[in-house]
Fold these 3 entries.
Entry 1:
Amino acid sequence: MNDTVLYEVFVRSHHAAGHQHVGSLRATGPEEALLHARDLYTRRNEGESLWVVRADAVTASEPGQRHSLFKPAAGKGYRHPTAFPLHPGVKNM
């Protein structure tokens, strides 16, 4: 009987960086997943921090939701750089 669970693995390469998804693995629990992630994804000391997350705990959008999730928010033009005056010393933006 196979009691393994699918985990998603995220690695942070250095202190100022964010965690990046690097792959998936199967393990019987989070501690085993962390050990396997260390062995599989940080073999050359390239990682500073690891996250392992059960794949069934990840909530993700579908490609078909792109337009509804990422459309610009109405009335929030201040989030776009064109809403601000360009400093005279800036030649290209």
Note: DSSP finds two helices and three strands in the chain.
Entry 2:
Amino acid sequence: MLDFERLLQDAQNGSLPALKYLGDIYLDGLEENGIKPDLQKAIDCYEKAVDGGMENALLDLGYIYCSGQYMEPDYTKGLAYYERAAALGSTIALGNLGMSFCNGYGVKKDEKKGFEYFLRAAEGGNPDAMQQVSEMYARGIGVKKDKKAAAHWQTKSEEKRRLDEEAVKEEQCDPLSEAFRKNLKFISEVTLDADFANKIFSPLDGMRQYTLGSCEFGSGTIVTADPLCYLQDPKSVTIKGKTIAPGSYPVQISVSESEMAGLRIVGARLRIKDSRAVKYELAESLAQKDGEWKRSFAGFPVECGMACFCDLQAAQSYWRFLEGWYAEHKNGNIYDDYFAALFADSYKKEPSYQREGGDFLMWSNPLDGTQIAMFASGLGDGFYSDYWGIDKDGDICELTMIFMDPELFNTI
């Protein structure tokens, strides 16, 4: 059963994927959770997702208003959404607009304009639009008859469909792609099994552990983020809802190696106590809104293939460092021109636990010595959850993030 309450909370906190998914649920209902279809709630969710910049929600709204499946068609609204999606490059929206003009759905029938939309969609790589363009050339609809052009677009449509089918078959036959798909489901789980987590951080079954060193937490307020992307933007940073006692705590990573995935960091944890976790709970986050820290979605996004642990004070110092660095390097790239060399040095010191070029670094800020523990996030970009580890006495003993299930990659 879907954790609907968490999805609802994430949507209320502005998570765009959550808003889109919630809209899908309200649109058709979800029997297993006892949720009945609610068109207005679906539209509200999609509109909020659109306002946040999610392009796919434009197509959902266009379909709702134009298809007649959910309401009496309102082509004025629906086509407006399709126009916005088309302006962003959606070939689906371009094709839908082409169909509208060819048939006069919500607009004055204009086959020439319809052809122009279909042609733009075809040139964008849409095989259905390629087929439509071929037929319009063959029949002289919206364009002068041209048998040669019709044959050309028919061939391109068939070739594009063949390539798409081969790509799907290849992906289905590729063990790594299949494992990757399953891992996406794994990292979206809201629970973490204690036995599984302890196995990840055990020197058994092909797993290896390495301690980056101790990281100082001056305030005890913890930040988990992508250090090369979201951590650089104060507006994007979230903090953990629970704090720890100020102090220095070891950061440990667990590494696996397999023929399928190569050498990867499977998980990382901040060891707060030496005790063993007997259960895990999702680490809720707080985001700054209107000058206050308010509840936000759990977990954190990764876009540069990296994750980190650090204190909020270290993050604030990091922002000052970046401001000064970019002032001196107007067109510089902080990774290529600064961090790459530090990660390369890390690899030279510990080549057994990371890939060439470096996968982890305990960075010390030149301004004040505050630290950020940086490490590669398993298979790269995605949205990852983190969890508080609770020991038998009910105390928090660790903050853990798991990037991949090594069993999917034939490691354990």
Note: The longest helix spans residues 147-173.
Entry 3:
Amino acid sequence: MPTETPNPPESNINQIVTRIFSTHRITRADQKIFMATLLSKDSLSAEEQSQIDRVFDGLRQGLLRVVD
């Protein structure tokens, strides 16, 4: 049975993003949380969208490393 990742409140997204940029690493679990958040909502708050865009931009620029 597939396990579902619960949608975190916006404050948790902010905490995750803060941790990601302080360590310069993003885990697969973090990625799952972001993807679940993106796919489960009809619309994101401006803050949520900004935080998630910041992470994806960091990945594209090579500022973050994906770890398991």
Note: The two ends are 21 Å apart (CA to CA).
